[in-house]
Structures are given as structure tokens and as C-alpha cells.
Write a structure and sequence with these properties.
nine-stranded mixed sheet; Quinone Oxidoreductase, Chain A, domain 1; 24% strand; six-stranded parallel sheet
């Protein structure tokens, strides 16, 4: 993808050799969601472009999914092993496994040494996580929903406001929070009926109806998945001192102006890995994973609204990415791709 024009993508080819200590994998399937647009929008400042280096002016968008080992120069990682993790939007991936165990390994490639460790972990596929297609779509997004909910529980409010309410991460958070507080979704007029039909929100408002927030009760928190500075400004202005927390999570509206000056509380960028590290330290890795898988299973059971579409081939993936970056994707659609 062009770094300065995220909707423009091209197919590139390169020769990849597997050297000592390396493993080559065929990327079998991965999800395309608004989360990937956020990775691209923050490719520089949060270093998402650095995971899979590309030629000058371009970036390879990271994706979540499954890959199969086709060549291995590492004794503890066998050919044929199936692996879940963070891959390039590509047909193949080359990793340098370290700290291998029956559960998985980390990629210890030199260029990834200074990057967020949560993204460097790879797990061997396990049926404990359920259907692989649903894992591609929801496992990485729901982790963000889940740890957001954990963080928000530490600062309870009466009303939780979510922008880009149709995005899958917002849906996961809404499903978790409903019943604990009033959950309000802000969305486009085109997506309003879908958002209401999910049943996850107590109130759904169009972006043009932000003034309606004034009638809602008590203290409020905002979780902004849209990155739309105008909407964020309107929410801050409408809620005033009642808005006690404002969190920036995504950029589904990456092409909308993001205003630097806002009334009221100062927004905080949310970075899921830091929360995950803290919770793993508290509960242990097994404790964290057990809680997460239980919560994810409950969310997946509620997704009768989902319609899955398979995307096959590099050209089809490029076309799907262009629609996703432009915001032209049906929110009920779950795209699972293979280059």
C-alpha cells in the first residue's frame, strides 16, 4: 500500500529464501477488517510498517490469521505445522523462531527486536479457540475489546459512548459492557439499522445527532474507534464536564480531519499490548487466556448477524482492501482472504 494514499495498493513479487534458523510459511487465510486500516493509518507513529519492511514509500499491512510451515531450518518447528499469528498481507512469511515450546514461538528477527512483543508471538493452531475463520475475524479484535473493557471497569461511569459502533471491535466492547452501564453507539445513517439489530447497544445515534447525548444520564466515557476529529470534538463539546475519560482506539475514518484542540478532558491513545502485559502479570498467561477464550466464545455465539465472504487471489485482495480503506464495506460482512 502507498503510505501517503492508503487506499492504493499494488501486487509486488519477491524471491524469499529460508536460511539457517528461519522458517518459511504459506499464509493460508487472514481477516480484512477496519483493524487493518488502523494499522495502516498508524504505520509510522506506532511502527506497524516496521514488522514487514517494504520498498520506499510503500507499506505491507499486517493481518491476523493462519499459516502453514512449508520449509523449516529450525528443529523445534516442523514442516506442516499450522500457526496462528501476525502475518504480512502476502502469500508467504519468513520468521526466525526463538523460545519455541509446544504452544508456539516468538519471531526473533533482528528488525522486530524493538517492536511490541505482543505482535511477535505465534501459537500453534488449537481447537480450543474454535472455528479458524471466526478466529481470523474476531480473535485479535476481541482481545482489544476485552482489554478495553477491563480497563474501563477500573473507572466506572454511567454512560459509555462508542464511535464507529458498527466496527467489530466496538461491537465486542458493547457486548461486554451492556448491562453494566448505558451503552451508546454512534454510527453513520447507512449503518444505523445494522447496529440497532445487533442488540448490543442501549441507544444508537447518527453522527449528525450527537446533540442527543446531552439527554443521557450521569458521567460518561468515550471510546473513539473512528479517528474522526470532528465527531470527537462534537462529543467532547456536548458532554462537557460529564465526560471524564476519552480514549482513542482506531481510525476507521482515517481520511477525516483529526482536530488537535478539544474541549474538556484530554484524549488518551489506547495501546492494547500494555494492558495485556499488566493483566498477564496479574493472572498469569494461562489465567488470561482462559478468561479471554470464555468471553470470546460468548461473543461468537451472539454473532448471528455475521455473513462471511471468502476473498481469493492477490487482485481480489487489492480490490477488497480499496473498498475497506474507503469505508465501503457492509458491517455485517466478515472478509477472510488468501493471496
Amino acid at each position: 500500500m502507498k503510505r501517503d494514499a492508503l487506499g492504493e495498493a499494488a501486487v509486488a513479487t519477491r524471491e524469499v529464501g529460508c536460511g539457517d534458523g528461519e522458517v518459511l510459511l504459506r499464509v493460508d487465510r487472514f481477516a480484512l477488517t477496519a483493524n487493518n486500516v488502523t494499522y495502516a493509518a498508524h504505520g509510522v507513529d506506532m511502527r506497524y510498517w516496521d514488522f514487514f519492511p517494504a520498498s520506499e514509500g510503500f507499506g505491507i499491512v499486517p493481518v491476523w490469521g493462519f499459516a502453514d510451515v512449508v520449509e523449516s531450518r529450525v528443529e523445534s518447528v516442523a514442516v506442516g505445522a499450522r500457526v496462528y499469528g501476525y502475518w504480512p498481507m502476502a502469500s508467504h512469511a519468513l520468521v526466525t523462531p526463538a523460545r519455541a515450546s509446544p504452544r508456539g514461538f516468538i519471531d526473533a528477527a533482528a528488525h522486530r527486536a524493538g517492536l511490541a512483543p505482543v505482535y511477535n508471538g505465534y501459537e500453534f493452531a488449537s481447537p480450543a479457540w474454535g472455528d479458524e475463520t471466526l478466529q481470523c475475524l474476531f480473535r485479535p479484535l476481541y482481545i482489544t475489546s476485552y482489554v478495553l473493557d477491563l480497563m474501563l471497569q477500573d473507572s466506572p461511569v454511567e454512560t459509555l459512548v462508542l464511535t464507529s459502533a458498527s466496527s467489530k471491535t466496538a461491537l465486542g466492547l458493547a457486548q461486554l459492557a451492556k448491562g453494566r452501564q448505558l451503552v451508546v453507539g454512534l454510527t453513520s445513517p447507512a449503518n444505523r439499522a445494522f447496529v440497532e439489530a445487533t442488540g448490543y447497544y442501549d441507544v444508537v445515534l447518527d453522527y449528525g445527532d450527537v446533540a442527543g447525548l446531552a439527554a443521557l444520564p450521569g458521567t460518561c466515557s468515550l471510546v473513539d474507534f473512528s479517528g474522526n476529529g470532528s465527531v470527537r470534538h462534537d462529543v467532547h463539546a456536548t458532554l462537557g464536564e460529564r465526560l471524564v475519560e476519552s480514549h482513542i482506539v482506531g481510525d476507521t475514518h482515517w481520511d477525516a480531519a483529526n482536530l488537535s484542540t478539544l474541549p474538556g478532558v484530554r484524549p488518551k491513545p489506547f495501546f492494547a499490548p500494555s494492558v495485556i502485559v499488566a493483566r498477564v502479570a496479574e493472572w498469569g498467561n494461562d489465567g488470561f487466556q482462559a478468561r479471554l477464550t470464555t468471553a470470546l466464545a460468548a461473543f461468537v455465539a451472539s454473532t448471528g448477524w455475521l455473513r462471511i465472504e471468502a476473498i481469493a487471489g492477490a487482485d481480489a485482495v487489492v480490490a477488497a482492501w480499496a473498498g475497506l480503506a474507503a469505508g465501503r464495506i457492509d458491517p455485517a460482512l466478515g472478509m477472510v482472504a488468501r493471496v
